[in-house]
Amino acid sequence: MTGTVDDAIHAVSVIATKRGGQALGDAQIAWMVDGYTHGEVAPEQMSALLMAIYLRGMNRQEIASWTHAMIDSGRRMDLSGLRRDGRPLVTVDKHSTGGVGDKITLPLTPLVASFGVAVPQLSGRGLGHTGGTLDKLESIPGWRAEVGIDDMIAQLERVGAVICAAGADLAPADRKLYALRDVTGTVESIPLLASSIMSKKIAEGTGALVLDVKTGSGAFLPDEDDARELASTMVELGHDAGVDTRAVITDMSTPLGRAVGNAVEVAESVEVLAGGGPSDVVELTLALAREMLDAAGLPDTDPASHLADGRAMDSWRSMIAAQGGDPDAPLPVARHRDDVSADRDGVVTGMDARSVGDAAWRLGGGRSKPGEAVAAEAGVIIHAKPGDRVRAGQPLFTLHTRDESRLAGARACLDAAVTIDDPAGDVGAHSRPLIVDHVRFTP
Ligand code: URA
Q1: CA dihedral sign of residues 201, 367, 267, 272
Q2: Residue with the nearest Cα to atom 3 of ligand 1?
Q3: Average pLDDT for consecutive 10-residue bins of the chain (443 residues)?
Q4: Does residue 203 sit in the same domain as residue 92?
Q5: Which CATH number do you get for residue 99?
Q6: Is 95 tagged catalytic?
Q7: Considering only CA atoms, which residue is closest to atom 8 of ligand 1?
Q8: Are residues 49 and 95 part of one domain?
Q9: 45 with 78: CB under 8 angstroms?
């Protein structure tokens, strides 16, 4: 392929096909994705195609073809040879579509590994209002996100758990396309979300995959029907690629747990591994662990037992130490703290996840462009959740930051984040179920 006028005309015809609402062929998709990855299709042409896909959608064949073009843009890993004590290791991964306070990967990965399953978690960094697993873990002194493939395999065989950055050669087309989607308003598209997530998971070589598909105000796709369609699209893509894939649809209208940020989320995850922690974080960790253990051929296993007896914590400590981290080192603490308080007596009936995520981001917890440094100690601690009774003046949130000038912006994000109603009726009725549904492949 060359960057000639002919190629530009070819790209234009692909864009026009999708703009007109017709399906793209496999060859057209492979040509565009390969051309964009290698700099031969211009960003403005790919932007136009992404917007046409956003508006017109794609059928299942197109989504599969787009996913495979992204997988083929890089290396496909093979984890089928993992062994411990001479016996093959089963691999199961989990992926969340992203949410506020979603630290579940941190307790879940060592918990599932403590049952003898290998959990390869190639994770990302936060962008916008959702946090990134690697940013959170980097608040542990010494911990390294970059792990080479040989070290990753050795760690999976020895410890069973690894959470690390995906190498640059894993679906590089997705890396470029994701950055472009982020600045062209085309992130929230089911075909583009499904292919982005599944290209990386299939290329990673996991044997099985459990997807946590979020719905509610803090999710990329707030509408529940959209979340269901995204889930079933990804489950089919995984199945067709030979990966046992299932999804759990979970509520993200309220932040998960009581900590949103980086070090504060690590601290909350350690509480869960120690047998405590907020009930919603524990509930989701256990629900996803059950799915992962079932996919690994260990049905009817009770993951709660390893939170109670310390085996999940031992697995966490080994995982952190294997990547240079000191699990006993104190976590960074914010220099400035400020409370946001209730303005009336009543019952909390709503807490907008998106607003809390934005506040944590403004406190320095997230980045506005790739490569920016994040502040490990920045975050929000939540003191009241939906269903709780509060009194006027009682703290709803504590803001943590190293930079006092960030407090006002964060407070503004939280102005309308919480709904407090008169304390009539059943207080408990205001909290929504966390686990909305389970989605499995149906032929
Ligand atoms: N996570 C991904 O990997 N891709 C997306 O498009 C959105 C979230």
Answers
A1: negative
A2: 197
A3: 51 96 96 96 97 98 98 94 96 94 97 98 75 92 95 96 91 92 90 96 96 92 96 97 97 96 97 98 98 97 98 98 98 98 95 94 84 90 95 98 97 96 64 90 89
A4: yes
A5: 3.40.1030.10
A6: yes
A7: 97
A8: no
A9: no
3-state helix, strand, coil in the chain (%, to 5): 45, 15, 40
Q: Which atom of ligand 1 is nearest to the CA of 181?
A: 6
Q: In 3-state terms, what secondary structure has residue 160?
A: coil
Q: Is the CB of 193 under 6 A from ligand 1?
A: yes
Q: CA of 377: how far to CAs of 137, 171, 370, 374, in Å?
A: 12, 32, 19, 9
Domain extent at residue 20: 11-57
Whether residue 124 lies inside any domain: the answer is: yes
Rounded Cα gap, residues 224 and 227, in angstroms: 5
Distance from C-alpha of 376 to C-alpha of 334, rounded to nearest angstrom: 9
Judge if 42 and 107 occupy the same domain. Answer: no
Q: Is residue 275 part of a domain?
A: yes
Residue 92 and residue 34 in one domain? no
Are the beta carbons of 437 and 369 closer than 8 angstroms? no
Q: Domain for residue 299, yes or no?
A: yes
Ligand 1 centroid to residue 292 C-alpha, Å: 21
Beta bridge partners of 372: none
Whether 200 is a known active-site residue: answer yes
